[in-house]
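The protein record now logged underneath.
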Amino acid sequence: PTQKQAPSKGGQGKTPPNRKVTDYYPVRRSSRKNQKELQTEEKKRMDELIKSGKEDGMKIDFIDGKGRGVIATRHFNRGEFVVEYHGDLIEITDAKKREAAYAQDPSTGCYMYYFQYLSKTFCVDATKETNRLGRLVNHSKCGNCQTKLHDISGVPHLILVAARDIRAGEELLYDYGDRSKASLEAYPWLKH
């Protein structure tokens, strides 16, 4: 039988300690931004777009059978900010009072958009005629835009983003979402 030999104590036969690649090459940190940093930058960019009120890449046009509408004058990528639905941000009790007052004058029209935010019902009332384009985007059940809420310092902003790529020359459209019987009777175009 063979016996195992004990390692000699004279330093011979010792194996060198394991080395890591970083012992020979400096550690390079990635300059790429992580997901959180990218999201923070995108939020800041969106905040600035909304605060500025700039409405580039679209124009008002007359649409047969609809009246005024908004046409894209440039390409919008899917998911890209298009325009804010801008108006007075009010709570539901004030909104219902205004809506009742508007109903007294059939020439006024109604540009009120109701939504839930932090367990409360709010409304953006864009009835007052302004130079803002979001209020003039027409309805389609198959619209090329969709609504989204964007929070700036605790205040919700109702924006439209491209639901798909939108070409220059296309009418901007989104689904108003109103399917009540009374609305469908008063506004048959909501069915399309």
